[in-house]
Design a protein that fits this description.
The protein has 391 residues and is mainly alpha-helical. It is 69% helix and 1% strand.
Length: 391
């Protein structure tokens, strides 16, 4: 039989079988060893262990960036402190879904408690570590006191209550001049390790002279908070927070106590904010005036959490790095560069970067909320929900 007759016979057999003839099998060529791209493997490692990579990079940064031993080191230290504060707010807003507009109040409470327990004008002077522990516990207790009568409130009503609490705290700190120093604040707050010598090094003097000591202290505190938040996120309590955020009624029907879950969120958020306040007062050697803990500070931190991604730890840190870094690092550097280049000899606000920073900040927020409402680095759950709604 010729080749043409063979092909006609095969086609006829295929038609008689209803076209159910087997398709030709293509044998894949064996892939060479190491075919997986190195960049994909590196990206997977960064997604899974981003915290360790970031910690190593930031720990080595002062060794290769001499500017961190000067004013830049103080600015980055402030950035780390705000990252801690934002992670505390993320517990309330991101995990539990409770709108909190008074996080700056707990930030200020932690700072003033640290000052009261350490400044020379008071008899306590118990040291940095002990004062931090007491301040964090006391701030958590105040958070519980605020959360207990507001358990039935949600949404706008809870936001108004927390906003009012923040204003009450600010006015109280301003008016109790004999205790808080009024608008002058309390100072000098001694640095960590004041009066302690290790290996011939006076720790208090080292913290006061070299900004890198505070840099590493706040970086260590930030790393501890990130690890704690990751553990909480994967724990039973963290899952209960998310369940209450998704559907409080369904969570209660499944045996989750919404009361305990909300109170734990209030306490945890307040404690982390109090820790940030302690580090803030110690790094500045003063509490600053009460206006440093006003409503604008709460809104800035809330915007950072929303910009980065609700319920996302790396997103929250990225949001703070963008907003606070833009305000405390980029804007002063841009103004200094404009002055050095003699671009604005008359000092006009129209030609200064600081004069436009709020407009740039607002425009960036509008664009992000329009084109990426889930945030820059959202949690997987929230991103899936938003994309499902848009679909």
């Amino acid at each position: 039989m010729s080749d043409s007759e063979t092909r006609r016979a095969d086609s006829g057999t295929s038609r008689r079988n209803g076209g159910r003839g087997q398709a030709p099998v293509h044998v894949a060529e064996p892939q060479a060893a190491g075919a997986v791209p190195v960049l994909e493997s590196l990206a997977a490692v960064l997604r899974q262990r981003w915290d360790m990579v970031a910690l190593v990079v930031l720990a080595l940064a002062p060794l290769v960036v001499p500017a961190l031993g000067g004013a830049l080191g103080g600015q980055v230290t402030t950035l780390f402190i705000y990252c801690i504060l934002a992670l505390g707010l993320n517990v309330m807003v991101g995990y539990t879904g409770l709108v909190h507009l008074g996080i700056a109040a707990f930030f200020g409470i932690g700072a003033y408690l640290m000052a009261i327990l350490t400044v020379p004008m008071y008899p306590f002077q118990i040291g940095f570590l002990a004062a931090t522990i007491v301040s964090v516990l006391a701030t958590a207790g105040i958070g519980l006191a605020l959360g207990a009568p507001t358990l039935r409130l949600r949404g706008d009503y809870l936001a108004i209550v927390t906003l009012g609490f923040g204003e009450v705290v600010k006015v109280t700190l301003r008016n109790l001049e004999q205790i808080t120093g009024g608008m002058k604040g309390l100072n000098p707050v001694p640095p960590p390790g004041a009066g302690v010598k290790i290996g011939g090094i006076d720790l208090g003097l080292a913290f006061a002279i070299d900004p890198r000591w505070f840099y590493y202290l706040t970086l260590l505190a930030l790393a501890g908070v990130v690890v704690a938040m990751r553990r909480l996120e994967q724990s039973r309590l963290g899952r209960a927070w998310v369940a209450v955020r998704e559907d409080e009624l369904a969570a209660s029907a499944m045996g989750i106590s919404a009361t305990r879950v909300k109170l734990s969120a209030f306490a945890m958020s307040s404690a982390v904010a109090g820790l940030a306040g302690c580090l803030y007062a110690a790094s500045l050697s003063t509490t600053a005036d009460p206006n440093a803990y006003d409503f604008n500070r709460s809104i800035m931190v809330l915007c950072a959490v929303i910009l980065g991604g609700l319920g996302s730890i790396p997103g929250t840190i990225l949001g703070v790095a963008i907003l606070v870094g833009f305000d405390t690092v980029l804007a002063p550097w841009a103004d200094s560069w404009i002055q050095q280049m003699n671009i604005n000899p008359t000092g006009s606000s129209l030609l200064s970067f600081s004069g436009w920073r709020l407009a740039i900040f607002g425009l960036a927020l509008v664009l992000v909320m329009r084109y990426r409402p889930e945030g820059l680095v959202p949690s997987r759950r929230l991103a899936a929900e938003l994309h499902e709604d848009h679909a």
